[in-house]
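Thanks for the sequence, V.! I ran Ribokinase right away. Repeating your input here for the record:
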Amino acid sequence: MTVWCLGSINLDRFYRVPHIPAPGETLAARELTTGIGGKGANMSVAAARAGARVALIGAVGADGAWARDRLAAWGVDTRFVATAAGPTGHAIIAVADDGENTIIIHPGANHRLEAGPLQAAFAEARPGEWCLIQNETVLQAEGARRARAAGLRVAYAAAPFTAEAAVEMAPLADLLILNRVEMDQLQAATGRGPDAQGVATVVVTEGADGATGYDAAHPGGLHVAAVPVEAVDTTGAGDTFTGYLLAGLERGMGLGAAMGWAAKAGALMVTRHGTADVIPNFSEIDANFGA
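Predicted structure:
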């Protein structure tokens, strides 16, 4: 079984700063590091390190061939990552001493993806597999329709969030994943709570408060507590949670068990600096928190 991820690939530039800059403020960064990120890449690496077979559908520029090669070395099938005109997407990330961050994203090649890789990927997909989609790329609705036509289940991580995109994607999704702020915005836009969005399963992440899942068996919500750790960098924690959640569901875990496993992965992730490069593998989860 394969998790098919339609998503972004970014070159991440991390700047260590004493605090998140205020409007109009200039700060001197103490450190600069470069790594691989983007929600598609992060989620794909997380699912792969959780033990799933993962194929990423996306695009890089000519300057991003090294990123595609590194993703392949990490166990992600990159045969459906195209080379597009223009630069690879990139993110400028300021990380403060308290672990909080602020991020500016330039989409680059992520917004130049064409339908060919989708068609080629789903020609190999098997009914019952998962397709994971997020908002840093293009062709989300088309990808979801193609996935459903191929018999796949669709998971939609609604970030970066807009209510318009979430409303369009909800009828095409079997699983909706978003954080509490995003859920509040979606509820304000639709007048409906997480149990009434027309999606079979909704998972709302709540940072240090854990996560809550809603499905037919838990219409009032199934809450999973967060694992207490000392955070140094929250970048990529939500993507790590999502990748592990999909890997858990793919291997047949129930919703609560998959959410609990994902919460452990997200907790370990926030104790590290970086994005895809430092996403933990399943043996590290077991070593730190138990199976």
